Structure formats: structure tokens, C-alpha cells
Amino acid sequence: MSAVTQPLAGALTAQTFLRAVDLSPVEPQVHDEAYEATTQYVPWPKAYGGDMVAQAAAAMMRSVDADRCLHSMHSYFMRPVDIGAAVRYEVERLRDGRGYSTRSVRGYQGGKVVYAAMGSFQVPEEGPEFQPAMPAAVDPESLRSAAEALEGVEGPAAEYWSAGRSFDMRHVPGPVYVQVEGERVPQQAVWVRAFDRLPDLADARSTADLHRTALAYVCDYTILEPILRVHGLAWADEGLATASLDHAMWFHRDGRADDWVLYAQEAVSGQRNRGLALGRFFDRSGRLLATVAQEGMIRAGRAH
Question: Which bin fits 268, alpha (ψ -120 to 50), beta or left (φ > 0)?
């Protein structure tokens, strides 16, 4: 499949995400159970890392009892993954306790391990709560969509950023698609919402899992951008090379990814062509839904 000529899958709908997490059970070859999923179109040579995070999360979710939900997962991206090709996720049931379950999952493509993760699930309990305050941010309706920010910019990348990612993403202070809009500071925020309503599934737990999976899917698109921003780098810069290295995500509260969610992000450190960034997802009422930490490879072009 050509990453350049393949048409966009489902412009201005969430179908790209829903296709990504449409898993098929297959016969396990290594561990206790296995599933296959297909990576989605992107206009560059390797698959989007959020495909693997969300697909692995969905595979692990299928392997636990309905009384518990995913509260954390930790991932490593080991090899580039082909676009539009199947990845087999082998799930190992490491432990099932009264209150917690632990799973390991490996993604295979072409006979090689391309991705590995672990996840922990909890039976929900009642207890005291604490969270940081949601950062102040202008309303998403007052911000430009990606399509509006890229008006007049042509090419497969601009088309994909505008319509091909299943989610409307609106940047504060501005995007870093073709140039860094706003100050070169180590933080930014992105309002995120699925282009259309995600389906309600057979029960409340399955629906909540779908929205956790949606946050896992969308989180990788912009988490390295605070590092790009502080260095004055834009995605369209000639010679820029990036790759996700490892990823951690903690799920705190249930929420909906088809309503506006604020993804507040900050760069922690950049060194040796690697950078670490943190992100927090808040719903519009200020509830903290999830926290993300990710390290990536960032190699600037010669102009920088």
C-alpha cells in the first residue's frame, strides 16, 4: 500500500479510529490469546504510533473480566510498522487478583516484534479524590480547526492533518504544522474531539473502554509538539525526523472523547535527539481524565 497515493479514510468522521480498533480474534502463537488489527493510512513511510497504543489497549481490554478497567499502560515502540498491514497482538495473562489484573502484550508484524506493552486493570473502588486544576484556555469554538489553519496549504500531509485523523484538534496558542505559531515556549494545549459521535456499545463498561481507547489513540499525534515548539521546529520542516520511543498512560476517570477534551502538554527535557513530554486530558468541566508521558526521537533538519 502506498502512503502517498492511498486516499484518506473517512474525511471528517471518526471511522479511521474505529477501523483501527476493529480487532479480529486469531489463533495465538506465543501467549494466551491473540488479535489482529490493521494500521491506518498516513502520508509518510511508517504507521502512526497511536494505532499500536490503541490496538494493544483494546486487545488487553478483551482479556479481562467485565468488573475491571484499564488504569495504566506502558509501551515501547521497537520497529517501524507498515501502513495498511495487519499487526498481531499476543496477550499474556500475567495475573488476575481480586482487585487488579496485569497483562502483557506484544505486537508482531512480518515475524518480528514491533511493539510491546504492559497494562494494569482495577476493580473500581470508592475513595478520596484529588487532581490538579485544569489550565485556563480559550473556548475551542473560538479557535481555528486544522483545516482552517492549513487553508491554502496543499499536499497529502495538509489533507491528512485537516481531515484524516478522526479528531478535530485546535491548538493553543497555535499549531506547528508548517511553522511555529505563537511563542517558542515548552508548553501548549490542544482541544480534541472526535469528528462525530462515537457509538454507544452494549454496556457502560464497553462504552467507557472505547473512550479510553480513543484517548490512547489520539494522544500520540501532538505529545511531542511542545518539544518541537520550544526548539522552533515545525512538522513540515525539511529533514525533520521523529519517532515515538516509549509511552506511558494513566486513566483516572471516565469521560467522552466525542466531547471537547483539553490536552494540556509540556516539554520536560530535550537532549541527545530525544525529548520527553507530559500531557493531561481534562474534560470541559475540569475533571482530569488521563495523564500521558512520552519520549520520542527528534532529529532536526540541517537548517537547524
Answer: alpha
Residue type, position 271, single letter: Q
- SS3 assignment, position 147: helix
Q: For the segment 284-293, what is each residue's pLDDT rounded down to a tens digit?
A: 999 999 999 9
Asked if 107 and 76 touch (Cβ cutoff 8 Å), the reply is no
What count of other Cβ atoms lies within 10 Å of the Cβ of residue 198?
A: 20
User: Cell match 491528512: residue?
Assistant: 160
Map residue 261 onto helix, strand or coil: strand
- How many degrees, rounded to 5, is the angle at CA 83 between CA 150 and CA 275? 65
Contacts of 272 (CB under 8 A, 6+ apart): none
Query: Alpha-carbon distance 279 to 215, whole Å?
Result: 11
In three-state secondary structure terms, 16 is helix
What does each C-alpha distance from 105 to 30, 44, 62, 227, 292 come to in angstroms?
10, 26, 12, 29, 19
pLDDT at position 244 over 60: yes
Please tell me the distance from the alpha carbon of residue 167 to that of residue 190, in angstroms, as a whole number. 11
- Three cell numbers written together for 208: 467507557
* Confidence class for position 304, pLDDT limits 50, 70, 90: low
Q: Specify burial of residue 240 (Cβ count, 10 A radius: 0-12, 13-18, 19+).
A: middle
Distance CA 214, CA 16 (A): 11
Tell me if the pTM is above 0.85.
Answer: yes
Provide φ and ψ at 177, rounded to 5°. Answer: -70, -65
Rama region for 285: left / alpha / beta (φ>0; ψ in -120 to 50; rest): alpha
List the one residue out of 201, 171, 192 whose CA is nearest residue 261.
Answer: 192
